[in-house]
């Protein structure tokens, strides 16, 4: 049984590392900000989760699991938040192609200045 868990941990680490690698390549290769944000968050978070699962399977210890769960939860909380903030700032700077947006919820706030009160 230990050998099966070790092989499963190795496979999970390999898949997680490949997902993190594809996230890094996507950040470098994609042209627009939304595509880069998608590449930076989705596969990277899944890759980290798979690597944490592999560590838990490999070490087979409840204190390790208790240490890894907050890491995964913090990553799940901060990755979408940081992507949202980067995307919003890119929108404000005008570096996003607005013709490619399906829904533009910030168009009204862009027309009125923040200090205008409207």
UniProtKB/TrEMBL annotation:
TM helices/strands, residue ranges: 6-28, 65-83
Keywords, comma-separated and alphabetical: Membrane, Transmembrane, Transmembrane helix
InterPro entries, per the entry: PhaG_MnhG_YufB
Presence of keyword Membrane: yes
Keyword set includes Acyltransferase: no
Superkingdom, natural source: Bacteria
Similarity comment: family membership: Belongs to the CPA3 antiporters (TC 2.A.63) subunit G family.
Protein name: Monovalent cation/H(+) antiporter subunit G
């Amino acid at each position: 049984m230990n050998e099966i868990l070790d092989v499963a941990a190795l496979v999970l680490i390999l898949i997680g590392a490949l997902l993190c690698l594809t996230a890094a390549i996507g950040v470098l290769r994609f042209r627009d900000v939304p595509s880069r944000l998608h590449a930076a968050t989705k596969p990277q978070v899944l890759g980290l989760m798979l690597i944490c699962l592999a560590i838990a399977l490999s070490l087979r210890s409840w204190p390790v699991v208790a240490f890894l769960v907050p890491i995964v939860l913090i990553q799940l909380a901060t990755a979408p938040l940081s992507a949202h903030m980067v995307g919003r700032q890119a929108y404000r700077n005008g570096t996003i192609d607005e013709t490619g947006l399906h829904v533009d919820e910030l168009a009204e706030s862009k027309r009125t200045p923040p200090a205008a009160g409207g």
